[in-house]
Design a protein that fits this description.
single chain; 158 residues; mainly alpha; Four Helix Bundle (Hemerythrin (Met), subunit A); 5 helices
Length: 158
């Protein structure tokens, strides 16, 4: 005897498959628009989000509302996200001087996000680091803001 799903289960499976396909199609469309500038905008926006999350985690750490371990994991994860964004920008195929400038600006902005997160990670993981934690938090927030602004600017150019 062949197993048949109940009709409600079939509808749920069909809805899940449709949702997954719709998500795939929409995300595919997002990556196809805007060429190099659009891809750079998305990468910079991803780095901005990661830097904002890192700043929030670091702020929570400074307020002693999270453990060193939890903050370290968050900072490591956000650094991975920023490095993925940096790789995406580095691999952009550009064909015009404007696209090369966009790639260079995006790479520099993402690099500052990365450097800020690394500095915060060092502060959390090594009690001997004596850098000004408040200034470091400000640096993280400034890097996130700069990346967010650049992402918005590049998004508007598409």
């Amino acid at each position: 005897m062949k197993y048949r799903r109940p009709p409600a289960a079939q509808r749920m499976v069909a809805a899940a498959v449709l949702a997954a396909l719709t998500g795939s199609v929409l995300s595919g469309c997002a990556t196809m628009s805007g060429g190099a500038t659009g891809d750079a905008a998305r990468s910079v926006s991803d780095a901005a989000s990661a830097a904002q999350s890192a700043a929030l985690a670091f702020e929570q750490h400074l307020g002693e509302r999270t453990t060193d371990a939890a903050t370290g994991v968050t900072l490591d994860d956000m650094l991975d996200e920023v490095q993925t964004a940096a790789t995406s920008v580095a691999e952009l195929e550009v064909s015009t001087a404007d696209e090369r400038e966009v790639r260079q600006t995006a790479a520099a902005t993402i690099r500052e996000c990365s450097d800020s997160i690394v500095a915060a990670r060092e502060q959390v993981s090594d009690p001997g680091v004596t850098s000004d934690a408040g200034a470091l938090l400000h640096r993280l927030e400034a890097a996130a803001d700069a990346a967010s602004e650049l992402g918005d600017e590049l998004e508007e150019r598409q």
